[in-house]
Write a structure and sequence with these properties.
Length: about 325
Amino acid sequence: MKAWQIFFLIFLVAGSIYVINRSTPYKSNSGKTFGTYYNIIYQSDKDLHGNIKATLAKVDGSLSTFNKQSIISAINSNKDIVPDEMFVQVFTIAQDISEKTNGAFDITVAPLVNAWGFGFKQGLPTDSATIDTLRKYVGHTTVSLQNGKITKLHPQTMLDCSAIAKGYGCDAVARTLDEAGVTNYMVEIGGEIVTKGKNDKGKNWAVGINKPIDDATGQNNSLQEIIRISGKSMATSGNYRNFRYDGERKVSHTIDPKSGYPVEHSLLSATVIADDCATADALATAFMVMGLEEAKNYCMNNASIDAFFIYSDDNGNLLTAETEGFKKYKQQ
Ligand code: ADP
Ligand code: MG
């Protein structure tokens, strides 16, 4: 081929890519899943909502404790089953994060979550004797995957993937879009987000971090910060949406698996940026258990993790802290 022919070919290919990118519309699909809302924006000529819904149904059928037919429900009632691939993936990530966070994140926390009234079973009035009994059945080292099946040390042990399933669901939908050849998208389920490529303005995706204002209705969406990300996942865990009051005391839905009690400290919300959303989701919950100092230390020792924290001082003023790496997302 002559030089001008090569040049012409490059011009033609680059031109077509430009035209395709300019003319392919951005679509938006939304709906309800895992007891919350999803909103997915992607650039494609095809409407992929059918594929997206199929993926979400698969995640629900594998990991939802509210779905009595799910794999996780079968495991919780000690049925002898071989879990599907999604369950094995999430279980493996969850166990890995439990180890890395020294047990702050632990999917065997289910009996305690239920006892405190935030789970898939009705909570009983909690007293310290009940908590002590339940704590015996909690601990990530008491469950393992052996020959493709979940093995428990205690039949009373139950699993709760609520703190990782939304993030994993985002990853699963992102994979579905990847497989359909989509290169520009943002997947959001209940505030957990996966991004790739650019938005319809050709820029990185803008995402908001909520102010941690006590609001059990989920209607208050004042933003603390807006950042821009691409090719990264973001998840936030906070104690300002899902909580209840016992008299004067605010009972958070994040449970410290070691003490057996809901966490009570100055950290109000933790936002994590990671390469995948299951990890971001699980770490955000772990950070709420660990508290500000321990969470900051974790980020220092794990270069791929960035985080933004909102906490209150002794006078109730809101303060923020962030990792060095987080700053770049604010400047784009
Ligand atoms: P959000 O509801 O905002 O997504 P999280 O991702 O932090 O919040 O998930 C909170 C849920 O995770 C709780 O409702 C409970 O089911 C479960 N959970 C609570 N404490 C822990 C823990 N230490 N490790 C793992 N899961 C937890
Ligand atoms: Mg979480």
